[in-house]
Amino acid sequence: MQQTTSSSCALRATLPEPLRRNTYIQHPKRARQNRASTKCEASGHEDVGNDKSSASKSIASTTRRSALQLTSVGALHALASRSIFSADAAFAASAATGATSPTSLAKQLEARVQEFTLSNGMRFIVSERKTVPVVSFHTYADVGAYDEADGVTGVAHLLEHLAFKGTPRIGTTDFKKEAPLLDAMDDIFYEYLEVGDNNKKTATKLNAQLESLLEEAGKIAVPNAYGAMLSREGAVGLNAATTHDSTKYYCSLPANKLELWFALEAERFQAPVFRELYSERKVVFEERRMRVDNAALGPFQEEFAQRSLTNNYKRPVIGYETDLLKLGRREVASFFAEHYGPRSLTVAIVGDIKVGKVRQLAEKYFGGWRSAATPGAFCGGGNGSNIDSGEAEPLPIPPLVNSSTPPIGTGRNSRELLAKSIAGPAVLRAFYRPCIRDTLATSNLDLINDTLTGSRSARLYRNLVEEGKALTVSSYASFPAEKHPGQFIMYGIPAPGVSPEELDLLIQAEVGSLVERGPTETEVRRYVKAAKMGILETLQSNSALASTLASYQVLLGDWKEISSDLERVESLSGKTAAACARKYLRGDNSFVGYIEKI
Fold first, then answer.
1. Which of 16, 24, 496, 507 would suit a FRET pair with 47, their CA atoms being 20 to 30 Å apart?
2. Which residues are bridge partners to 351 per DSSP?
3. How far is Cα 433 from Cα 442, in angstroms, rounded to an integer?
4. Beta-carbon contacts of residue 119 (< 8 Å; ≥ 6 apart)
5. What pLDDT was estimated at residue 25?
């Protein structure tokens, strides 16, 4: 696919789809990429903070009480997209130009954000914004695909789907009649697994019985009851997302629905009924076939991750088909019991609320929740807030083993993969990098990423695309996630007459110049300005601020690291980037895949 631009949308469009599905921490460079991703991919994660319509302007001067009566919920959410600092005109002006200092930002945030932790370990971060009567909620579950055990890949993602299926009170017309049917389904499913291919006649009979029970239970279930209840009350942006690192649930509601959200959120986490499990599993199968099995580069990407990574990032979030076939209620319930509990959840609430009321409702609905579930471990080996432990966990690089007669398609050594695809020719090189808690490396790798492919003036676009050596070249500083050590990836499609191996050498030569001299002063200034704006933009809407507060709290141990990020960005230089490139962007610290066209 020929590309004529290396803007965010174009660059990310060149990556195979799973490579474009990012983690959600709003870090400098990635914050801008994530916003571009939403626009490019139409992923379905609704952005409620960008409507600047005349309808939203027309109610700017109305009272908060009359606003609910005079406007639609959508218009209210548009108003809620105003900056958290909009009441402070001077600060808003400086934020718009990127001139805000870390100290000023820290003071502004600390004046507007409060936090508290329940006795059971559940954390709440709250920011009062009285502009319009709207509240955004972001529940960050510190559990993702990385935490899955061998043999049950895909369970974290499946559980996210099932979290919307209701409770004994929500999603059914008669739970007393439904419960025995759910139990019967489980019995038949596990009997079916035991029979397997040993007795096809029995397996066929059991499958027919399961389908019959699914149909009978479907008559009792109320589809999408949870979402429908919230939507009727004005919910916007109701959705969820699963990554290797986390599972996130979010929505925005009118402010007078605060207690409704607490009641529903508490019930779905403390009394879940994983109804429609076996039918929802079919949905996940289709999702996998579309994104992986039937995608031009899907099988290559899966094999590349499997071969190039030695930690759990090597496994796809959606799961392996062989594992999905074996996922039943026991596996889902066991994973939930082990990983979903008050200590695993961080909730950020931003909007027209009072902290005292939020605390009261938190105690009422979550205070009595007791669970042995624990959050996932960080790359430092624990769950603390030490952000300097980024390299305590080794880089996930496989041992180097050369082969004079490699099997077809495997490569000339253990860090090379050769493949053929209709999507070829292409090259994908991955350098190994530490986790996000090595904040110095993270900031410098983001600068390097921007210098190489961040814009049409970036080096690889100027020197390879404009010179006719590549159709497109793109990079991503943190793949596939960042809570644990992962990869800095570079992906390129060679121009006609250029082989994937030749393009790889050209890319490595450009990386080599960064190793020797680092980015120029102009490149550093350009990135620092854009990165600071990227950080500040994540604080603008209710929903974006809630996401940012929760992500920083979990991934970096403290939401106040937002202002520390500004300090780190301002301290970047060509010298620090060159040192980082020397350490991580080395040929002997990488894995490469070459794709020839079929």
1. 16
2. 128, 135
3. 9
4. 367
5. 28
Predicted TM-score (pTM) of the model is 0.83
Q: What's the Cα-to-Cα distance from 126 to each of 69, 88, 230, 247, 342, rounded to whole Å?
A: 26, 19, 21, 20, 17
CA terminus-to-terminus distance, the chain: 15
Is-contact 36 15, C-beta < 8 A? Answer: no
- Which helix (H) or strand (E) segment holds residue 115: the answer is strand 113-117
Torsion angle of the four alpha carbons 586, 590, 595, 596, in this order, in degrees rounded to the nearest 10: 50
Task: Write down the residue that tokens 């908060």 correspond to.
Answer: 64
DSSP-derived letter for residue 249 is E
What values do phi and psi take at 593, rounded to 5?
A: -125, 130
* Contact by Cβ (8 Å): 192, 210: yes
Going by C-alpha positions, the residue among 536, 508, 414 that lies closest to residue 83 is 536
For 416, the token pair is: 């090379």
Please give the torsion angle defined by the CA atoms of residues 360, 364, 367 and 369, in that order, rounded to the nearest 10 degrees.
-150
SS3 of 200-223 = HHHHHHHHHHHHHHHHHHHHHECC
The position carrying tokens 């952005």 is 47
Q: Cβ(23)–Cβ(478) under 8 Å?
A: yes
Amino acid identity, position 200: K
Query: Cβ distance 301 to 19 under 8 Å?
Result: yes
Alpha helices in 271-419 (DSSP H): 277-288, 298-308, 321-324, 329-339, 355-366
CA dist., res. 114 & res. 112, Å (int): 7
Dihedral of CA 450/453/455/459: which sign? positive
Tokens of 468: 């006719």
Residues forming beta bridges with residue 51, ordered by sequence position: none
Question: Which single residue is written with the structure tokens 């970036």?
Answer: 458
Per-residue pLDDT of the chain (598 residues; tens, 9 = 90+): 333 333 333 333 334 333 333 322 233 333 333 333 333 333 333 333 333 333 333 323 333 333 333 334 444 444 444 444 444 444 444 554 555 677 787 788 888 999 999 999 999 999 999 889 999 999 999 999 999 999 999 999 999 999 999 999 999 999 999 999 999 999 999 999 999 878 889 999 999 999 999 999 999 999 999 999 999 999 999 999 999 999 999 999 999 999 999 999 999 999 999 999 999 999 999 999 999 999 888 999 999 999 999 999 999 999 999 999 999 999 999 999 999 999 999 999 999 999 999 999 999 999 999 988 888 777 764 443 334 444 468 899 998 887 655 554 566 778 999 999 888 999 999 999 999 999 999 999 999 999 999 999 999 999 999 999 999 999 999 999 999 999 999 999 999 999 999 999 999 999 999 999 999 999 999 999 999 998 888 888 899 999 999 999 999 999 999 999 999 999 999 999 999 999 999 999 999 999 999 8
Could you tell me the strand order of the sheet in which 426-433 lies?
A: 416-421, 590-597, 426-433, 486-494, 470-479
The answer to whether 500 and 424 have CB atoms below 8 angstroms apart is yes
Query: At 41, which amino acid appears?
Result: E
Please return the burial class of 367, using the count of CB atoms within 10 Å of its CB with bins 0-12, 13-18 and 19+. middle
71 secondary structure, DSSP code: S
Token pair of 412, please?
A: 């000339």
In the DSSP assignment, the letter for residue 46 is -
Place of tokens 């009261």: 360
